[in-house]
């Protein structure tokens, strides 16, 4: 949390400094003040609405930092242009607002709508990142209001001494950057089909390069805490689990990077953290919650501790796990489903052999526990009823002959010990032959009085009190009320999925291997396993979690696209202009793939979120340029000249907006969670800026049949 506050401050400083250097000190100060007012105003609104300041909401501010100054940049740039063109101050301060108010509002709404699928996603990843949409909606709308009201007021006061009035009535574009842009545009317009073919080729190369990007679902949380799962085969009691966990705790406390260890036996502690998996309760299960001095120390020492524990406790499942939104016990799981457990075992063994021969995976296991011995008694109901005994009497007697029946607790200070009722033989030793276990009734039975000897004594009045109690509360050997007593082996738990028996073969990626690459290393061979009729294979783990998140994310994506198209049509009252902008959107992939490959970042869920956000940013820039093209054409300017001049006119606003967004992302790059999001936006927006200034005018010329005169 503290790191993110620092990142937010750094991002604000970077954006303000860039604006001062690129647009002049006073213009930069005006836009910077507008940015700060927007951020604090958004904080105030979110607090009033019950919002919270956490990693996602603060990251949303960093993500929005460049977009928050877009509207102000357009307004300030327009004011400067009008003043230099010789307009009076009142006209210069208000004309750009009247001209661009609705286009900027439409562009702002589209930038917000790009994140709407995240807000509407019902799965865990969507809920966790939902604040991205809320923060962006509040801050961007506030930035639009301030750009039309607050910015002109400050410009009227601050920009007056720095204005140079020109009497030419037309803006002149001087400098190497403008000359380079003009040359590129004239060349592109002269060879428009070649330019389009080059863009399609780049897009094809990017699609090809997509397969070489590191794939993932959701990054691990940046915490200084992790948890260790410890599981013995079923049938072990909690005594050994407690002993082993005590040894591990003692070892961990000798390490200087570990500050605190908490032990839990029998199951997962109370829901102290929302981003972790929950284990099934078991006496053979235990956990340690381990605190480190810092997240970096955790990452540096995790593998070493894992290897030590795996070697020290080879017969146990020991796994150190970081907090992650993927609530799966293992990141890679191949699940077989079908009716016969024996066939499921065969299929699982085949998959396990494949995994064991694949170096990209490790910690291979299944979700079926080893079989355990079970006492099987064929109950003789007729014989038991004749003696006044029931099934529950047999169960209680067997329990007393084995583990014992808990009847109370003994406290010594804060320590508690259970008190058990146990049956022993005449020597005070545990009963060795279960057939000799004495079964007693919990209620008095009159059947004991019904034999001839007791009836005679009752009539004569010679039946003693001791004989009466023994007759009413007597016991019977178990072998007299059972047909057979056997020990058989069976599965302690039979997992089911959607009502069907299932068995999962599970593994983790080897150190240094991303999960999806490890899964792909085994996927083809496992999918080639011949499945009998009635049996199916499904991928669970991170693959399933990712597919579910993508399904919910893109389920609502068409709605966002429809809303964007509707806004564009209302803005331009035309179908071809929105089509020009939407034809440019696939080109975002070129910049995203290039940066992901260069930086080695993982293309995960948050990177996809960033890519969706790029759609709104590119459309926003496209609206600003398209509005200028329409304005110049309506003024009767020759079409090719209008296309070139419009691109030059919007060069500074578009590049400034892109530059502030790109450089404002720098504080997020090292972050484990949002670093991939920052990289995707930086790459996509860099190439997207070139697309806005070059490709949109060329496509416009094609769609509207403008000849290159």
TrEMBL record:
CC terms in the record's Gene Ontology section: plasma membrane
Pfam annotation, one family: ACR_tran
Entry superkingdom: Bacteria
Cross-referenced Gene3D superfamilies: Multidrug efflux transporter AcrB pore domain, Multidrug efflux transporter AcrB TolC docking domain, DN and DC subdomains, Multidrug efflux transporter AcrB transmembrane domain
Transmembrane segments: 6-22, 29-46, 58-80, 101-120, 132-153, 193-213, 552-572, 579-599, 605-625, 681-703
Keyword Coiled coil: no
UniProt cross-references to InterPro entries, sorted A to Z: AcrB_DN_DC_subdom (IPR027463), Acrflvin-R (IPR001036)
GO function terms (MF aspect): xenobiotic transmembrane transporter activity
Key words, A-Z: Membrane, Transmembrane, Transmembrane helix
Protein name in the entry: AcrB/AcrD/AcrF family transporter
Organism listed in the record: Bacteroides eggerthii 1_2_48FAA
Higher taxonomy: Bacteria, Pseudomonadati, Bacteroidota, Bacteroidia, Bacteroidales
């Amino acid at each position: 949390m503290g790191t993110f506050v620092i990142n937010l401050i750094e991002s604000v400083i970077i954006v303000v400094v860039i604006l001062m250097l690129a647009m002049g000190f006073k213009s930069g100060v005006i836009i910077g003040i507008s940015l700060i007012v927007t951020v604090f105003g958004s904080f105030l609104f979110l607090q009033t609405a019950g919002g919270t300041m956490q990693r996602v909401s603060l990251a949303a501010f960093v993500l929005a930092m460049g977009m928050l100054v877009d509207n102000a940049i357009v307004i300030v740039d327009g004011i400067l242009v009008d003043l230099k063109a010789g307009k009076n101050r009142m006209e210069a301060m208000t004309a750009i607002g009247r001209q661009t108010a609705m286009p900027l509002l439409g562009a702002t709404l589209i930038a917000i709508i790009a994140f709407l699928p995240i807000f509407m996603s019902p799965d865990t990843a969507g809920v966790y990142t939902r604040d991205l949409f809320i923060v962006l909606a509040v801050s961007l709308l506030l930035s639009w209001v301030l750009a039309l009201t607050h910015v002109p007021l400050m410009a009227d006061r601050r920009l007056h001494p720095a204005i140079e009035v020109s009497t030419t009535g037309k803006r002149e574009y001087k400098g190497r950057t403008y000359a380079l842009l003009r040359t590129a545009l004239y060349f592109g317009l002269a060879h428009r089909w070649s330019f389009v073919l080059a863009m399609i080729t780049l897009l094809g190369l990017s699609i090809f390069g997509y397969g070489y990007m590191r794939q993932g679902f959701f990054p691990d949380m940046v915490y200084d805490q992790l948890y260790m799962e410890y599981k013995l085969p079923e049938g072990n009691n909690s005594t050994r689990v407690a002993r082993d966990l005590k040894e591990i705790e003692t070892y961990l406390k000798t390490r200087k990077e570990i500050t605190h260890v908490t032990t839990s036996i029998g199951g997962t502690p109370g829901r102290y953290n929302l981003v972790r998996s929950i284990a099934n309760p078991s006496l053979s299960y235990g956990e340690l919650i381990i605190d480190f001095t810092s997240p970096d120390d955790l990452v540096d020492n995790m593998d070493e501790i894992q290897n030590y524990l795996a070697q020290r406790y080879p017969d146990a499942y020991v796994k150190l796990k970081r907090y992650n939104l993927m609530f799966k016990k293992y990141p890679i799981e191949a699940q077989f489903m079908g009716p016969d457990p024996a066939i499921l075992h065969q299929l699982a063994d085949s998959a396990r052999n494949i995994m064991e021969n694949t170096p990209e995976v490790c910690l291979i296991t299944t979700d079926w526990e080893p079989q355990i011995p079970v006492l099987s008694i064929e109950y003789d109901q007729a014989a038991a009823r004749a003696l006044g005994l029931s099934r529950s009497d047999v169960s209680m007697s067997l329990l007393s002959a084995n583990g014992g029946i808990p009847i109370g607790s003994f406290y010594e200070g804060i320590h508690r010990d259970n008190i058990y009722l146990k049956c022993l033989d005449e020597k005070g030793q545990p009963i060795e032959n279960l057939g000799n276990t004495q079964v007693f009734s919990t209620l008095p039975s009159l059947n004991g009085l019904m034999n001839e000897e007791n009836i005679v004594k009752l009539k004569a009045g010679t039946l003693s009190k001791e004989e009466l109690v023994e007759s009413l509360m007597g016991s019977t050997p178990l072998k007299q009320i059972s047909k057979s007593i056997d020990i058989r082996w069976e599965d302690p738990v039979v997992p089911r999925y959607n009502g069907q028996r299932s068995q999962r073969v599970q593994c983790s990626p080897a150190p240094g291997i991303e999960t999806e690459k490890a899964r792909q290393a085994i996927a083809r061979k496992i999918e080639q396993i011949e499945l009998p009729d009635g049996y199916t294979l499904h991928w669970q783990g991170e693959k399933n979690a990712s597919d579910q998140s993508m399904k919910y994310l893109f389920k609502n994506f068409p709605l966002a696209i429809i809303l964007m198209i509707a806004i564009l049509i209302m803005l331009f009252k035309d179908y071809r202009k929105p089509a020009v902008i939407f034809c440019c959107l696939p080109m975002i992939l070129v910049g995203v793939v290039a940066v992901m490959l260069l930086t080695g970042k993982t293309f995960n869920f948050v990177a996809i979120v960033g890519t969706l956000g790029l759609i709104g940013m590119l459309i926003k820039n496209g609206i600003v340029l398209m509005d200028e093209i329409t304005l110049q054409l309506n003024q009767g300017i020759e079409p090719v000249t209008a296309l070139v001049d419009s691109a030059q006119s919007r060069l500074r606003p578009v590049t400034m907006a892109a530059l502030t967004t790109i450089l404002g992302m720098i504080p997020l790059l090292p972050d484990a969670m949002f670093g991939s999001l920052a990289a995707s936006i930086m790459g996509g927006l860099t190439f997207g800026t070139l697309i806005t200034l070059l490709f949109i005018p060329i496509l416009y010329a094609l769609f509207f049949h403008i000849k290159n005169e």
